[in-house]
Specification:
The complex is a heterodimer of chains A (70) and B (466). Chain A is built from no helices and eight strands. Chain A is mainly β and 70 residues long. Chain A has a single domain, classed as RNA polymerase II/Efflux pump adaptor protein, barrel-sandwich hybrid domain (OB fold (Dihydrolipoamide Acetyltransferase, E2P), Beta Barrel). In chain A, β4 and β5 (38-43) form a beta hairpin. Chain A starts with a strand and ends with a strand. Chain B starts with a helix and ends in a 13-residue tail after the last helix. Classes of the chains: A mainly beta (70), B alpha/beta (466).
């Protein structure tokens, strides 16, 4: 089943750590957001192939799709 | 054991079998009759600590509760209060017995009243082993800690009633399974992999709350905790290794998946039971929000009610701002945490590891809310907000005038100046909002000594499920 990774808070996309189509494991960092003066890693909660839905410099709102893991 | 009990013990779902597996081996003794009331209650030991327990009987009418069964549960509560012992309830019940009508509803009401009478006086733990609906859902919800085994389900009304009333088609797991209550609703504190694991957790918690010990019961070894923080001040990290490093051995984390931006764990320090509340920068940057404030508030009140000292690990950038939070009631629910700490009388030690900003600084057991002691690691910062963010507001005009090229260096210069005036740890000590700087190498022993020296008071209040 595909896992949709969504933003937990409003933030700037500071770094995209994974590349499109990369294999990831549960717990791997996908993207690092910047908000509240903190670097906030977004981690995978399942293993699979990742598809990234945002780019560095984007602003994400709470609930926005960041990546899909299949 | 009588003949009836022996044959009943053959069914692993029978109350006799479940209670025998819950208590330390061979210590269980029934205190109510083994009959068709649908409930069996008894006493025994949990890791050596005397405790009371009862179990609903899913082999009779799906565990439904009638007047006699409800009386057995109330009797178990009377015994727990008389003994001052923790009480554990094993739940697998469809709720009220339909055939008994309003009489069974009255009985369930008497259970709720008994639970509330005992609230804050003796620790109450619930283990949900199978589908538990209606009264069997609210029963566990009124207790201090709810553990759910893999087949446990909690809902007000089951899928059949939902379908007939609203037409909504939903299965039991989606309605009230582990994902629902462990992550979304916060009804369940602990999810387990098996029934036996659930019993083991219940014994551990009964022992932690019922036999708290004192600092010095086990030898305390200082370890350097500094390596558990990352080098960069903005870098996120998982606080769990720090919480576990502080405790004698990894504790029992409650509400692990619900509001994971704050961690609430029961464990032991120097042999004494303590509760740890810690911001977790890995989730939401460690911000406080409506849900995490409510989770921490309930934990603080639970610890206060049972005389468990608190250790508060602070690394918080602030309250999460925004529309979603305000609409979620961050003001109302955040106020619960302020109230919980301010009324708390157990020894409670705060340790600021990196930063404590703004309203969240106040809420995390600050000096003003009555902390026994506020400690800080070298380099920690206490401020209304981060220094760069502060000078952007304080010196907005000046920064606008210099132009973009020079702005970053001016910001840093002003920030350094501002830190000296308002944010540094020296200033915080001068004002008395931080008592001491403590080295990460001696943190365990300093906190343990502070707890041991403080009056071992206990809050006089119930433990409403906030």
């Amino acid at each position: 089943m595909a896992e949709e990774v969504r933003a937990e808070l409003v933030a700037n996309v500071w770094k995209v750590v994974v590349t499109e189509g990369q294999q990831v494991e549960d717990g791997d960092t996908l993207v690092i957001l910047e908000s509240m003066k903190m670097e906030i890693p977004v981690v995978a909660e399942s293993a699979g192939t990742v598809s990234v839905k945002i780019a560095e410099g984007d602003v994400v709102q709470e609930g926005d799709l960041i990546a899909v893991i299949e | 054991m009588t003949a009836t009990e022996t044959s009943a013990a053959l069914d692993p779902r029978s109350p006799s079998a479940r209670l025998a597996a819950l208590f330390d081996e061979g210590t269980f003794e029934p205190i109510t009759a083994v009959d068709d009331s649908g409930v069996l209650a008894g006493v025994g030991h949990m890791l050596g600590t005397p405790a009371v327990a009862f179990s609903s009987d899913p082999t009779i009418q799906g565990g439904a509760l009638g007047s006699a069964g409800c009386n057995a549960i109330v009797a178990a509560y009377d015994r727990a209060l008389a003994d001052g012992a923790p009480i554990v309830g094993l739940w697998h019940s469809g709720g009220a017995r339909l055939r008994e009508g309003a009489e069974s509803l009255d009985g369930i009401g008497r259970i709720f009243a008994a639970m509330t009478r005992a609230s804050g006086k003796v620790p109450q733990i619930s283990v949900v082993l199978g589908p538990s609906a209606g009264g069997a859902a609210y029963g566990p919800a009124l207790t201090d800690i709810v553990i759910m085994a893999p087949n446990g389900r909690i809902f007000v009304t089951g899928p059949d009633v939902v379908r007939s009333v609203t037409g909504e088609d939903v299965d039991m797991e989606r309605l009230g399974g582990a994902e629902v209550h462990g992550r979304r609703s916060g009804v369940v504190h602990l999810l387990t992999d098996s029934d036996l694991d659930a019993f083991a957790r219940a014994r551990e918690l009964a022992d932690l709350l019922g036999n708290q010990g004192k600092v010095g019961d086990t030898e305390l070894v200082d370890i350097d905790l500094e390596g558990l923080l990352p080098e960069g001040a903005k870098r996120a990290y998982d606080v769990h290794p720090l919480v576990n490093g502080l405790l004698d051995s990894p504790g029992v984390e409650l509400h692990q998946k619900w509001a994971p931006n704050i961690v609430t764990t029961l464990g032991r320090l120097g042999g004494r039971t303590v509760g740890v509340v810690a911001n977790n920068p890995l989730r939401l940057g460690g911000c406080l929000d409506a849900t995490s404030a409510e989770k921490a508030a309930r934990f603080v009140r639970t610890c206060d009610a049972f005389g468990v000292p608190l250790i508060v690990l602070v690394d918080v950038p602030g309250y999460l701002p925004g529309l979603g939070q305000e609409w979620d009631g961050v003001v109302r629910r955040g106020a619960k945490l302020l109230h919980a700490f301010a009324e708390c009388v157990v020894p409670r030690v705060t340790l600021i590891t990196r930063k404590a900003y703004g309203g969240a600084y106040i809420a995390m057991n600050s000096r003003a809310l009555g902390a026994t002691k506020v400690l800080a690691w070298p380099g920690a910062e206490v401020a209304v907000m981060g220094s760069v963010a502060a000078v952007r507001i304080l010196h907005r005009r000046k920064l606008a005038e210099v132009g973009e090229a020079l702005r970053p260096s001016l910001e840093l210069e002003l920030a350094a100046e501002h830190e000296k005036l308002a944010g540094g740890i020296d200033k915080a000590i001068e004002m008395g909002v931080v008592d001491n700087v403590v080295s990460p190498k001696e943190t365990r022993s300093v906190i343990a000594a502070t707890i041991a020296d403080a009056p071992q008071a206990r809050g006089a209040h119930g433990n409403i499920p906030l």
